[in-house]
Amino acid sequence: MTNHEFETKLLHQPQFRDKQTGAVNVPLYYSSTYHQESIDEFGQFDYSRSGNPTRQALEEAIAELEGGSRGFAFASGMAAISSAFMLLSAGDHVLVSKDVYGGAFRVITEVLTQFGIDHTFIDMTDMDETARNVRPNTKVIYIETPSNPCLNITDIEGVAKIAKANGCLTFVDNTFMTPLLQKPLDLGADLVLHSATKFLSGHSDVVAGLAVAKDEALGKRMAFIQNSCGTILGVQDCWLLLRGMKTLSVRLKQSSESAREIAQYLHHHPAIEEVYYPGFSFHAGYPIHKRQATGAGAVVSFRLASKNCARIFVNRMKIPVFAVSLGAVESILSYPATMSHAAMPVVEREKRGITDGLLRLSVGLEHVDDLLADIKQALVAVQQSRPVIHR
Ligand SMILES: *Cc1c(COP(=O)(O)O)cnc(C)c1O
Asked: Is 175 in the pocket of ligand 1 (CB under 6 A)?
C-alpha cells in the first residue's frame, strides 16, 4: 500500500474511511445478503459468510500489517488455527513445537487425529531436531514463538528454510508479538495466525482470530476453507477489533516497558525460582529473538516453589485480574496448569516446564509502580509461609 510506518498504518488505511459518507470508522454492515442487479451481473458481495464489507476492512488491515497478500477474520484464535489445519489431508503429518498453546495441542492431538493427520511434538529451538523429524508426508511445521507460557524462542527463518527445503508450509502463531514486534511472513513463514482476542483487540471484550497468507495461492485456499467451514468473525466483533487495533502500538509499547521492569524485579527476588522473559540477555533464545523481533513483549512467566506458594501469591495480588487470557489493558495473572494448559495431560504439561508453581503475568497499562508494590506485598506473604531459598 504505502510506505508509512507501522504506527501510521494502524490508523490510516484506505478501507477505514467510508467512501459514501466520509465516516472515519468502518460502518457495521449488518447484512447477511446483498441485492444483485441482474441474473448476469453480481456485485462484489453476495452472502456474508463469503464476504462482508466490515469484515473485509479488518481482513485487509491485518494483511497490510503482517505484510501478506490476504487476511482472514475468524470466530476465535482456535477457529483460525483449526481452519488453517483444514489445508491438510488424511495421511499428512505436522511438526509442532512442543510447548504450543493448550487449545492448539488439543486440536492437533484429539481432532486432527480423527481425520488421519499425524503429528510430532519436538523441541523447535533445536534446528537439528527439527530437520531430523521432517517426514516425507510432513506438510506443515507449526511454530509458536515466544511460546506459551515458558517463552521459548524458535528461529522462524531457520525453521522456514527447513520447511521450504522439504516442501512444507510454515505456520506461525504470532499472538504474543503481534506484527508490531514480529513479522513472520518477512522471515519466510507462509501463514501467520493470531488469537486477536489478546493484544490485537486489547480490551478483553472480544474473542476473535486472524490469519494472513503470504502468497495469493495459499490465500485462495484459505478463503475457500473459511467460506466452506463458515468459521467467520461476526460483524460487531470485526468492528471492535478494528477499533482495538488502532491503539495496539501505544498499548503494547507501554505494557512491554512495564513488563521489563517487572521481570527484572522478579529475577532478583529470592522467592522466585525462575523467571521466563525473552528480554533477558541471558535467556537462551535472546540472540535469535533480538534478530527476529523488535521487543520482548508484555508477558512474563515465573516459577514459585510450589502450588501452595502460587495460591498464596494469587490470593494476595490485588490489581491484576486472575483469569484466562492475556494481552489486555488490565494486567492478567494466570495459572497455566489449570487455565491455558488445562487441556494438556499432567505428564505432558510438566515435560514442558508448566509446573504447579508456574504463574504467567500479562502486563497491562496500570502504573508500573502500583504493579511492583502489589507483587512485592504478595511475595512477602509467600515468603512468610515458607523458608527463603538461598541461591
Ligand atoms: C489464546 C491463544 C490462542 C487461542 O485463541 P482463542 O481466541 O482463545 O481461540 C491461540 N494461541 C495463543 C498463543 C493464545 O494465547
From this structure: yes
Q: Which helix (H) or strand (E) holds 348?
A: helix 346-351
Size of the chain in residues: 391
- What tens digit of pLDDT does each residue of 207-252 get? 999 999 999 999 999 999 999 999 999 999 999 999 999 999 999 9
Phi/psi zone of residue 359: left (φ > 0), alpha (ψ -120 to 50 degrees), beta?
Answer: beta
Distance of CA 313 to CAs 269, 356, 383, Å? Answer: 14, 13, 10
Question: Pocket of ligand 1, candidates 111, 197, 203, 362: which has the most ligand atoms within 8 Å of its Cβ, to mutate?
Answer: 197
Ligand 1 and 209: CB distance under 6 A: yes
Three-state secondary-structure class, residue 322: strand
The response to whether residue 295 sits with its C-beta less than 6 Å from ligand 1 reads no
Q: Which residues contact 38 (CB under 8 A, 6 or more apart)?
A: none
Catalytic positions, please?
Answer: 49, 101, 173, 198
Instruction: Write out the three cell numbers for 48.
Output: 456474508
Mean pLDDT for the chain overall? 95
Are 234 and 269 members of one domain?
no
Check which CATH number belongs to the domain holding 253 and give it: 3.90.1150.10
Using the atom order of ligand 1, give the atom closest to the CA of residue 100: 13
Ligand 1, pocket-test mutation among 108, 175, 324, most atoms within 8 A of CB: 175
Residue 197 lies in a domain: yes
Confidence bin at 349 (pLDDT 50/70/90):
confident
What integer pLDDT is reported at residue 31 of this predicted model? 97
Together in a domain, 229 and 89: yes
Q: List the domain range (segments joined by +) for residue 83.
A: 6-245
Please report, for the domain that includes residue 28, its CATH number: 3.40.640.10
**Does some domain include residue 298?**
yes
Ligand 1 near 173 CB (within 6 A): yes
d(CA 73, CA 255): 25
The residue among 210, 245, 280 that closes a domain is 245
Nearest Cα residue to 32 out of 170, 314, 235, 251? 235
- Residue-wise pLDDT for 93-131, tens only, equals 999 999 889 899 999 999 999 999 999 999 999 999 999
Say whether pLDDT at 389 is over 70. Answer: no
In this structure, is residue 372 part of a structural domain?
A: yes
